[in-house]
Design brief:
This protein has six helices and no strands. It is mainly alpha-helical. This is Protein LDOC1.
């Protein structure tokens, strides 16, 4: 009986040690994530920026060009903070509300590759919210023809 209790106590102590180590590792991961979050927040909203922070977009087709110009201008001025397509797409997503936010949820849920491709993401937004690049391209082609 005593031997069984000693073995049980030993097993409990081993389990406690393993859980303590795992807890320490998780606390370190949490600390790193909190630091990373703080760094990302500073990058997305710098204290002094010559371009105002973009307004949110809720899906109105008439506001899409303005939204794209605002976000592109903001990212251009802060290009060191938006160093890859995934950061740019994440920034756009953070500004979506209403219908636009509902539109993006399935892409996030299925971890779509479009979330890492800024141009493709913009093209999808344009297609969904009614921006027709073909009309602009046709107008540009006509203007180019006039120039020659």
């Amino acid at each position: 009986m005593v031997d069984e209790l000693v073995l049980l106590l030993h097993a409990l102590l081993m389990r406690h040690r393993a859980l303590s180590i795992e807890n320490s590792q998780l606390m370190e991961q949490l600390r790193l994530l909190v630091c990373e979050r703080a760094t990302l927040l500073r990058q997305v909203r710098p204290p002094s920026c010559p371009v105002p922070f973009p307004e949110t977009f809720s899906g109105e087709s008439s506001r899409l060009p303005e939204f794209i110009v605002q976000t592109a201008s903001y990212m251009l001025v802060n290009e060191n903070r938006f160093c890859n397509d995934a950061m740019k797409v994440a920034f756009l997503i953070s500004l979506l509300t209403g219908e636009a936010e509902e539109w993006v949820v399935p892409y996030i849920e299925m971890d779509s590759p479009i979330l890492g491709d800024y141009r493709a993401f913009l093209d999808e937004m344009k297609q969904c919210f009614g921006w027709d690049d073909d009309e602009e391209d046709d107008d540009d082609d006509e203007e180019e023809d006039d120039d020659y």
